[in-house]
């Protein structure tokens, strides 16, 4: 039930709030309510790039425990993270809704603060997530911030240790390659080097993580690369930022179709940190070298755990684009 409520909240909270404000403004005598909110919205517009607005009591809602138990979602660590350092955690794969990354790092659904004591996790996401009224306020309570360079500079530059920025590296384009039960898991990683440069700039240790089962909770309409549908989706994604995925989930009382995610285990394994020395102005050579090391560590992490979390598909492998 928690998962059902959350999905409806994510999908409809923002549009419902917008329609509600329009109704109040045009058809009631409470027109001043949306005007007050608009003034607040304009004054608060830069908050997602300035550390956000974390409310720990919201992160600890029992709803997130229900959400975690629905799939279920679990969190596994290969090593402790020393609070003396800052960290840049790469989250893979994107999946459809980043259920593993959200549950593990934006809530206390899997008790991340106990698994990694002394570490403050900050999930980054597209700036368009902070556009819809009221939804932006709710989403920021999780500690989420914009995935912009300015925003990440703010978080990693605001303390000498104990901060962990979580970036879903593949981004929205990767979600268009999300299909369950494939022999290849596609990751868009080769051109993604901005996070490497930021890690070097701030001396934030790099940590690969992989959510096994993330691609299994939803399917989508068949959209092979080069097809008309995929070309149209790619065009829209570049235009609006979000990927227009035609999802195929389950319903409330039946399992053949709907928008509710399927109940499939998601296990997020957080790997060992890769030490990074602070480099004020890293060269392309330094960025490429660290990027290659990160990719190698991520692949090794996947290979170490794939037989445990994908037992029927022992030949599954990563396809890195």
CATH top-level class: Alpha Beta
CATH architectural grouping:
3-Layer(aba) Sandwich
What distance separates the N and C termini?
Answer: 37 Å
Low-confidence stretches: none
Name the shape in a single word. globular
* Topology, number of strands: 11
Tell me the radius of gyration: 20 Å
Structure overview:
With 321 residues, the protein is α/β, with parallel strands linked by helices. The protein has one domain (46-320): Glycerol-3-phosphate (1)-acyltransferase, CATH 3.40.1130. Helices cover 40% and strands 16% of the residues. It is built from twelve helices and eleven strands. It has helices spanning 2-27, 32-43, 56-59, 62-70, 99-105, 112-115, 135-140, 149-156, 171-175, 194-202, 228-240, 284-309; strands spanning 73-77, 87-92, 120-125, 145-146, 163-168, 184-187, 205-212, 219-220, 247-248, 266-270, 317-320. α1 crosses α2 (32-43). Its EC number is 2.3.1.-. This is Acyltransferase. It is an enzyme of class 2 (transferase).
Compile the SSE list and pairings.
Elements: H1 2-27, H2 32-43, H3 56-59, H4 62-70, E1 73-77, E2 87-92, H5 99-105, H6 112-115, E3 120-125, H7 135-140, E4 145-146, H8 149-156, E5 163-168, H9 171-175, E6 184-187, H10 194-202, E7 205-212, E8 219-220, H11 228-240, E9 247-248, E10 266-270, H12 284-309, E11 317-320
Parallel strand pairs: 1-10, 2-5, 2-7, 3-4, 3-5, 6-11
Antiparallel strand pairs: 7-10, 8-9
Helix pairs in contact: 1-2
